[in-house]
Amino acid sequence: MKKLADFALKQYGRIDALVNNAGVMPASRLSELRVDEWDRMIDVNVKGVLYGIAAVLPVMREQRSGHIVNLSSVAGYHVNPTSAVYSATKFAVRAISEGLRQEESPASRIRSTIVSPGLTETELLDSIGSPETKAMTNQIAGMGISPYAIARAIAFALNEPDDVSVNEIVVRPTALP
Questions:
Q1: Total of domains in the chain
Q2: What are phi and psi for residue 16, nearest 5 degrees?
């Protein structure tokens, strides 16, 4: 992330926005003890967000402007069976984003937005290795929203004027409760 930030700064002279949109979801019941998958979710979903922030925050503070958009999930608001660890990582993203907003907005004018998608038609469900969980997710296949809906939500937050901070956006498909 630091190399990417350095490249962007060299290429464009500033960093106006970061969209932290990496995540994995090898969901399973806790009793399956898929510890390696838990570690991977924590590394990507939590540490990845932190590393992204660490790469751009010093530049944005120096500029006294910038916008960091962190992708969470509706799972960061509600835990379902098989999603305890994934939900924990997305709760963490919400906490990190809110902490960033409180620490940076007033002084440095750096904005922080959390975008929490519901089921979205991406490859995210492909990372599920648990046969039981995979069977459950097959029942909702094809009911997700387009990734473009999430992109439009991100663009909305980024395009608001500097004196407006869109802190949180939840986007869900209408096909699911």
A1: 1
A2: -90, -30
**Structural domain for 160, as ranges:** 2-171
The kind and range of the H/E element at 157 are helix 147-159
Catalytic residue among 12, 51, 77, 86: 86
pTM of the complete model: 0.90
Beta pairing partners, 145: 120
Q: 148 an active-site residue?
A: no
Q: Is residue 176 part of a domain?
A: no
| CB 20, CB 52: distance < 8 Å | yes
What share of residues in the chain are helix, strand, coil (percent, to 5)?
Answer: 55, 15, 30
Find the helix or strand (DSSP H, E) in which 155 lies: helix 147-159
Q: Give the count of alpha carbons within 13 A of 33, CB side only.
A: 0
Q: Residue 41 corresponds to which tokens in the numbers above?
A: 């979710």
CATH number, domain containing residue 143: 3.40.50.720
Please write the tens of the pLDDT for every residue from 126-155. Answer: 778 888 887 877 777 777 899 999 999 999
Task: Please give the Cα distance from 1 to 166 (Å, whole number).
Answer: 24
Q: What angle do CA 45, 47, 50 make, to 5 degrees?
A: 110
| Mean pLDDT score of the chain | 92
